[in-house]
Amino acid sequence: MSESQTDVLVVGAGPVGLMLAGELRLGGARVVVAERLPAPTTQSRASTLHARTMELLDQRGLIAELGEVARDDTGHFGGIPLPLGVQPSRYAGLWKVPQTRIEEILGVWATGLGAEVRRGCELTALDQDGAAVTAVLRDQDGSTARLRARYAVGCDGEKSTVRGLAGFEFVGTAAGRELLRADVAGIDVPNRRFQRLPRGLAIAARRPDGVTRVMVHEFGRPAAARRAEPDFDEVTATWARVTGEDISRGTPVWINSFGDASHQVTRYRRGRVLLAGDAAHAQMPVGGQALNLGLQDAVNLGWKLAATVRGRAPAGLLDTYHEERHLVGSQVLSDIAAQATLLLGGPEVEPIRSVMSGLLELEAVRDRLGSGISGVGIRYPMEDAGHPLLGARLPHAELITEAGASTTGALLRSGRGLLLELEPRSSDREDLRTVARGWADRVCAVTARPRPGDRAVATRALLARPDGHVVWADGGERQLRGALTRWFGHPLPT
Questions:
Q1: Can you list the domains of the chain with their CATH numbers?
Q2: Which residue of 116, 208, 299, 316 shows the fewest CB atoms closer than 10 Å?
Q3: Per-residue pLDDT tens digits for 320-351
Q4: Name one GO molecular function term (predicted).
């Protein structure tokens, strides 16, 4: 059996795996992505990007690749309308991008940076020791090869092979209810946005290409024990019982079902094996939150793992991936479980829905739920979180730098940290660039001023990680050196 080596093996070439591969390459790590499917899927399960994910794509210069994107100001919480266009982000709202297009863009980006993607390549065995992970990969022709990597990351979905082989503990609740979902050509039914009818829930949305996505749940009907996806006859029969409409003459393009199962691994890391996306947390895909949560996992992990394999990570850096993302994932799963009850519950949940509708009239409630769904409210725990920016993501701001006009997002595109000084240095203040000189290979130091009228970043100076989260703001020289060492390791020798 042949054997090859790499820094990181990523299993799964969906959006999460490809996003992670690109982030790892930005950080200088060698990457092999193993994907069981021989070609990219044509099934577009998810179709919604949220504000924080759009900000991350902007930080990597990928927004223009999306082209013209439809945007909606209004999301929902359990089918109850929730304004998302008011969130404090340049990309507030819901952005409609098919998952197939996201995969295409991320695939071109990751391979352009040097990631190797092996398709038709299935993981069959995985072992780890104190120095590396050894994986056995089987190609379509049945031949096998051994790959030895410093670390492996499972981005291979709800039924993750990596999770099973590495022995992660996956806890939660099984699905009790389910939605049937189908893309159907050749039907003409009214568009429906979470319409609750006497016998069930019906959703329908016709796309520009004429295909209609229908989703239906029959109240009181438990989730089926399935070994395969439902057939079209089951979808049409359920749709007819709930809506009274006949869609049986349509042509099914794609059919699946999903339930309200909720699971999360107890640890996102076991030794040299880590999980991201649906491999780490499985939840009902409400409003595209599963895809967005997974992409944000990848951006949080990528720079930390790259720094680790290159020997530049400070002690404990890789463990912050679990500490930060498990907490976020747990909160999202809790919110989705509440939404599942509001969506799939029958007449018995109407009093709860009525109360929830009333609460959503309060701005504080809308802000709490909207910031969670959009991701802009994520604030990671920091040892000293006195400044309102610490732990939060760096807001978009229009800047004038020494090199000309720029934005905070553009200044993060190198994949390095960012030391941003926004006020002229006074005579009694240390030159921040001098302080950060020992980290010049990992941190970009920029002096800028906001464009007139732009007050998005209310601070004198800040330090942001490669994922855009702020770890130092308006402190002194000593605090800055501490933050640089805490997140980027020891400085280079002078």
A1: 2-47+98-172+263-344 (3.50.50.60), 178-259 (3.30.70.2450), 398-488 (3.40.30.120)
A2: 208
A3: 999 999 999 999 999 999 999 999 999 999 99
A4: monooxygenase activity
